[in-house]
Inverse folding.
């Protein structure tokens, strides 16, 4: 089951774009609900649709939801087909990747996302009926008339539009891109190892939000271990509540590079100097 609400919540929170069908999203609480429940629109009023929309999804096991930060629909249906890296910083891209791959859901990666592909993925067609071709062209122009000038929407029937979407996989070996690829690999390695010992079932999964700070903790528990995934969606350094993380922690991943992997930290409730901090737009994974 696609969980588009997850994508919409994550994208709008990081980009601030709430135009079109993104009008129902954009608040920190929407991403919290997507991680905790699945669907955000679960029967309440939809501003975009001007009616009630959706059904509750909490009974659905997390492993049945497919989530992403970008896919063929969400990129291809934009005016220019631009990818997320046109709108986000490197820190935000890593945070988005961590949110997807450390979620309790089934992650989907869009082609080239893992190394920061720069080629767009515009909407393209290859129809033989001239009337249908013209209808598609006009439909695309009308869809984005209020969002961009007509010339910025590529001609979907033009072969050059298709060719512009071809990947440049050599980018994965270049500076900046290879580091991002390695980060994705580390996330996948962590996901594979951690989820064997710490359940992703809702009963053993805690979503702990701090709305004012735009800080979110995802805590998975097993009989002997707690895995704490902390996400900072703000542009400020945040302190993690010591009541939750007090004790001995082993750092497994820090997207900002502040803490090295396998660093052991001891957090005391009564010693502010020992606190655990997250840099702006970063993700941190610890084992307790």
């Amino acid at each position: 089951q696609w969980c588009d609400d997850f994508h919409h919540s994550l994208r709008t929170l990081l980009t601030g774009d709430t135009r079109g069908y993104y009008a129902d999203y954009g608040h920190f609480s929407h991403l919290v609900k997507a991680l905790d429940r699945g669907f955000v629109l679960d029967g309440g009023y939809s501003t975009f649709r001007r009616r009630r929309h959706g059904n509750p999804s909490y009974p659905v096991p997390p492993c049945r939801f497919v989530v992403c930060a970008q896919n063929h629909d969400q990129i291809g249906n934009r005016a220019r087909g631009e990818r997320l890296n046109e709108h986000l910083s490197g820190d935000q891209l890593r945070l988005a990747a961590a949110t997807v791959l450390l979620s309790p859901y089934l992650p989907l990666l869009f082609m080239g996302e893992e190394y920061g592909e720069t080629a767009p993925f515009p909407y393209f067609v290859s129809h033989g009926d001239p009337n249908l071709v013209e209808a598609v062209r006009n439909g695309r122009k009308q869809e984005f008339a209020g969002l961009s000038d007509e010339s910025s929407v590529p001609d979907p029937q033009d072969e050059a539009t298709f060719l512009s979407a071809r990947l440049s996989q050599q980018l994965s070996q270049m500076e900046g891109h290879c580091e991002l690829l390695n980060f994705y690999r580390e996330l996948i390695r962590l996901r594979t190892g951690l989820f064997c010992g710490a359940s992703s079932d809702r009963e053993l999964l805690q979503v702990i939000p701090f709305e004012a700070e735009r800080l979110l903790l995802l805590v998975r528990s097993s009989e002997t271990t707690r895995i704490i995934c902390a996400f900072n969606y703000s542009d400020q350094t945040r302190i993690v509540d010591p009541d939750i993380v007090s004790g001995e922690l082993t750092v497994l991943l820090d997207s900002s590079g502040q803490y090295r992997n396998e660093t052991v930290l001891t957090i005391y409730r009564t010693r502010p100097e020992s606190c655990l901090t997250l840099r702006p737009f970063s993700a941190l994974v610890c084992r307790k």
User: Anything to note?
Assistant: The chain has eight helices and twelve strands. The mean pLDDT is 93. The radius of gyration is 21 Å. The longest helix spans residues 177-197.
